Amino acid sequence: MGTVLGVLLSVLFAFGLIPSDGVGRTVKTPVGPGVPRDINTTDLGVQNATLIAIYGFNNQSNDIFLFKVHRIHKAQVQVVAGLKYFLYADIRRTVCRKGKPYNFKYCSFQTYPPLSKRFTCHFKVWVASWKQSWKMIDLNCQ
Ligand SMILES: *[C@@H]1O[C@H](CO)[C@@H](O)[C@H](O)[C@H]1NC(C)=O
Ligand SMILES: *[C@@H]1O[C@H](CO)[C@@H](O)[C@H](O)[C@H]1NC(C)=O
Ligand SMILES: *[C@@H]1O[C@H](CO)[C@@H](O)[C@H](O)[C@H]1NC(C)=O
């Protein structure tokens, strides 16, 4: 019974139906699906999610230059009808202008102080389990 309740609560938590501190109060050690866990930043899924995140950021920004991920500080993954990735990353402005063909590999970071710019971002990227459809669902950059 305890296990069933634990799983149910983690499912509710996974869908954001109850806040995490609510889970903490009810279940001492949340286990099973739905609990975000740390994942190596070199993981292929994290790499995929990072690409989606930076495309999403560039799509939404008004900057004339493209930004590129400089460093991923931390990555987490959560099972939510697929996988939800949480990325904590530094992104920096590159020398590549938007609207022109580019390859991130050849877009170096701006080094000239008036043009160099950095943000620390928290991205959420979700990939549905039933189709390989990646979506950035949230971003918060400062
Ligand atoms: C992440 O994976 C790399 C190799 O893919 C390994 O060298 C590194 O130690 C791992 N880092 C952590 C924190 O597990
Ligand atoms: C990463 O993306 C590639 C290309 O879309 C896909 O083939 C691969 O399965 C993905 N890997 C993971 C772990 O998500
Ligand atoms: C870019 O943003 C527009 C509107 O903000 C959205 O409709 C479109 O799907 C986005 N494209 C990509 C590739 O993220």
TrEMBL record:
PANTHER family the UniProt entry points to: CYSTATIN-F
Keywords for the protein's UniProt record, in alphabetical order: Disulfide bond, Signal
Example GO molecular function: cysteine-type endopeptidase inhibitor activity
InterPro entries: Cystatin-F (IPR042886), Cystatin_dom (IPR000010), Cystatin_sf (IPR046350), Prot_inh_cystat_CS (IPR018073)
Source species of the chain: Scyliorhinus torazame
Protein's UniProt keywords contain Disulfide bond: yes
The protein's name in its UniProt record: Cystatin domain-containing protein
GO biological process: immune response; negative regulation of microglial cell activation; positive regulation of myelination
Taxonomic path: Eukaryota, Metazoa, Chordata, Craniata, Vertebrata
Family, similarity comment: Belongs to the cystatin family.
SMART domains: CY
Any one Pfam family match given in the protein's UniProt record, by short name: Cystatin
Gene3D superfamilies to which the protein is assigned, alphabetical: 3.10.450.10
Stretch forming the signal peptide: 1-24
Cystatin domain boundaries: 31-142
GO CC terms in record: endoplasmic reticulum; extracellular space; Golgi apparatus; late endosome; lysosome
